[in-house]
Amino acid sequence: MRDTGRSSSGRPAGVIAGFGFRTGASVQSFEDALAQAAQGREVTAIATLSDKAATPAFAAFLRATGLPLYCVSQAEAQRMDTVTHSPGSQAARQTGSVAEAVALAAAGRGARLLGARVISQDRRATCALAVSETSETCAPDTTIPDKKTSNAFNQGETS
């Protein structure tokens, strides 16, 4: 995995790996979830909720990858339409899947998921990949895509 930089809007460019996780997730939890989600794809950035980014195991995982981090606010994540609808995630974070929501939010306008989120074997971390389908970048004042346009699964595309 290598860092290909950021778009002019400051959002990461390329394939974004979004993470949600429970207390007690380990570096191995993140590595396992990423390996399952990526399936050999090159990931260019990592995303998670702003209030989770400094968690010691997540920070260690991030350092090990050498990839840039995109922090997503709770409000941004709540605006994303997710494929997965976990009752626990909905109750705790008001989104069906934190991993899917942060990946979509980080990828920006025209983003789509490359698949539903995957769960690490120890069930402590989830990971989902998103990519932007448009070549244009978001201007700094552009709003987050609404639920109807933020992900291709709404149109039945499941690549």
Written description of the protein model:
It is globular and about 30 Å long. The two termini are 21 Å apart. The chain is α/β, with parallel strands linked by helices. Strands 1, 2, 3, 4, 5 and 6 form a six-stranded mixed sheet that branches. Residues 1-9 and 135-159 have low confidence and may be disordered. The longest helix has 12 residues, at 27-38. 28% of the residues lie in helices and 18% in strands.
Short description:
Residues 150-159 have a biased composition (Polar residues). With 159 residues, the chain is α/β, with parallel strands linked by helices.
Order of helices and strands: EHEHEHHHEEE
How many helical stretches? Answer: 5
Could you give a short account of the major beta sheet? 6 strands, mixed
Helix proportion: 25-40%
Which runs of at least 5 residues are low in confidence (pLDDT < 50)? Answer: 1-9, 135-159
Structural class assignment: alpha/beta
State the shape.
globular
Count the beta strands: 6
Which radius of gyration do the C-alpha atoms yield?
14 Å
Summarize model confidence as the mean pLDDT: 79
